[in-house]
Amino acid sequence: MLKQEGYELMGAAFEVYNVQGYGMAEEIYQQSLEIELGLRSIPFISKAPVDVYFKGHKLSTKYQPDLLVFGEIVVELKAIKALASEHEAQPFNYMRISGKKVGYLINFGTACELEWKRFVI
After folding, report:
1. Which one of 56, 69, 90, 99 is most buried, counting C-beta atoms within 10 A?
2. Cβ distance 117 to 83 under 8 Å?
3. Which secondary-structure segment (H or E) carries 45?
C-alpha cells in the first residue's frame, strides 16, 4: 500500500540526513525535508490541522501531523537519540483520526543512520 510513494518519501529523508547529518533541531529537519520534497516534486502539506471528534462532536483541539505526503501518508518527524513506543503512538493516532492507512515515523537524531518505521492500518 503506497509503497512507491513511501520509497520516494524515504529517498528525500535519506538525502536530508546525508546533507544535514544528525544532532540538529527537529524544525531544521522539517524545513529541509519540505525543501527536498519540493525539489523532487513530491506533493505535501505541512502541519495541516486534523479535526478530532468525540461522539460526533468536533473538539476545539486539533492534531497536527508534521507532514501529509501524497495526500495519503502521515509523517511524524523526530530528532531524538532513540525512538520509544510512546513515539509510535503519535503517528498511529494521526492515522486513525485522519483516516489515512499509511504512516511513517522518521528520526533524524541518531548518529549512525536515519531511524524510521512504516505503519499500515
Report:
1. 69
2. yes
3. strand 44-46
Q: Are 13 and 33 in contact (CB under 8 A)?
A: yes
* Cα–Cα distance for residue pair 16/30, rounded to 1 Å: 9
Which residue blocks in the chain are alpha helix, DSSP H?
A: 3-20, 26-39, 85-98
**CA–CA separation, 105 and 74 (whole Å):** 9
Residues 31-85: pLDDT tens digits?
Answer: 999 999 999 999 999 998 989 999 999 999 999 999 999 999 999 999 999 899 9
Are the C-beta atoms of residues 68 and 2 closer than 8 Å to each other?
no
Q: Provide the pairing of β-strand 102-107 with 73-78.
A: parallel
Q: Does domain 3-120 have CATH number 3.90.320.10?
A: yes
- Report the predicted TM-score, pTM, of the whole model to 2 decimal places: 0.93
The grid cell for 61 is 483541539
d(CA 115, CA 49): 25
